[in-house]
Amino acid sequence: MTNQSVDVCIIGCGPSGLMLSRLLAIKGVSSIILERSKRTHVEKRIRAGVLEHGAAQTIIDSGMGERLKAERMLHDGVCFVIDGKQARIDLTAYAEGQQISVYGQHEVVQDMIAFTLENDVEIVFDAADVALHDFETGVSPSAGPNAGPSASPNASPSVTYQKDGQEHTVSCKYIAGCDGFHGVSRKSMPDDKITEFHRSFPFAWLGIMAKAEPASDELIYARHRNGFALHSMRSQILSRLYLQVPLETDIADWPDDKIWDELDLRLGADAGWSVNRGEIIDKSVTPLRSFVVEPMQLGKLFLAGDAAHIVPPTGAKGMNLAIADVRVLAVGLAKMLNENDGSMLNEYSQICLRRVWKAQRFSWWMTAILHTPEGAHDTYQSRIDQADLEHLLSSDCYAKIFAENYVGLPFEV
Predict the structure, then answer these.
(1) pTM score, two decimals?
(2) Residue 348 designated active-site
(3) 137 and 273 share a domain?
(4) Residue 309 appears among annotated catalytic residues
(5) Conformation bin of residue 126: beta by default, left when phi > 0, alpha when psi is -120 to 50
(6) Is the Cβ–Cβ distance between 139 and 147 less than 8 Å?
(7) Containing domain of residue 250, as a range?
(8) Which among 221, 231, 300, 371 is annotated as catalytic?
(9) 224 catalytic, yes or no?
(10) Are 214 and 49 in contact (CB under 8 A)?
């Protein structure tokens, strides 16, 4: 059995955990990252690919974004297709010159892991049976349900895990749960100490990654009588595309040619326009859902990223919210550890949840107006959604609200 001590034990080796470790290191705070999966699995997981202006700049400013800065695709706008008619919103015109960066999340993670290991922060991959202990101690009784830690010397959280047949213990001052929706961190919080908010949508996305040059220089969101479609990309040679499908869809019922034909139908903006076809290297069906837990902290345990909230991917907010969370958490932890000032940690949930719920609203709205209600193509709601889209594409005021949300609201911290 081994025992080691750090300031912060981070559970999860995704963007939030890796970014938090780096931001803490800049402030002289030590950490270790525990990850239940193998490194190869973590680095190949296909996830989001759109970074808000502020999220991309955070990665670059941290020192982990050299390849991001060199290889990302900067987009000035996004396109919409409504039953074959295309319109564009100029993000830079409506959002004070800000752009979005298109760069795959798995590429972000690969860059961050390499940087983290090169800078002597330990990442334990294949950490099994991770368990959190004694994190509820050290809370001021007068600080309320969202309370952060006090300076009590008796508060001593720890995390245990199994590796190579041996049990290991990490003694720490704080624990950061960055291990996703299915991770152990949130599940370690007693049910009577948290409130969970859920919303499931009555459809799914069939997503593909294809070795094909993107057919558009910008993202295309399409609303069609057959359902939603999205044309995105991960690089100059990789296209990422999605189709709205029923929840019960079997991927076997969608051979490659059928997928390409349906994408052409839903995305075809002009006569003769079509997607570029190529070898499909990844194919999956993903239900859409929303989730938020309140508070995002309990004692000396703090949740960040998907461990605390899930948004439907329509608004491209998942990875961006994770980075926003740890910006706040890193400052709060550093102030507590370096200055014995727990004021920001006490407000961690309130600060983060203000942004989370705005992102939930934006993602819900985009999902609602772009997707066709299942089994009812001509319903009242469908007409309302189409009118909403047409208003968005014809109103400067509405377009400005969209652009400000899409490129990312200002950081509170």
Answers:
(1) 0.92
(2) no
(3) no
(4) no
(5) left
(6) yes
(7) 76-99+199-289+375-407
(8) 221
(9) no
(10) no
Residue 12's domain is classified under what CATH number? 3.50.50.60
Quick check: is 174 catalytic? Answer: no
255: which 2 tokens?
């051979």
pLDDT, tens digit (0-9, with 9 covering 90-100), for 317-333? 999 999 999 999 999 99
- Low-confidence residues in the chain, pLDDT < 50: 139-153
Residues 242 and 349 in one domain: no
Q: What is the SS3 assignment for 6?
A: strand
Helix H or strand E segment including 233: strand 227-233
- Of 15, 157, 295, 313, catalytic: 313
Number of domains observed in the structure of the chain: 2
Bridge partner residues of 187 (DSSP):
none
Which of helix, strand or coil describes residue 7?
A: strand
- Candidate list 94, 174, 242, 406, residue with the active-site label: 406
Active site residue 371: no
Per the residue annotation, which of 53, 75, 231, 300 is the catalytic one?
75
> Position 368: which residue type?
A
Distance CA 175, CA 185 (A): 9
109: alpha, beta or left? (left if phi > 0; alpha if psi -120 to 50): alpha
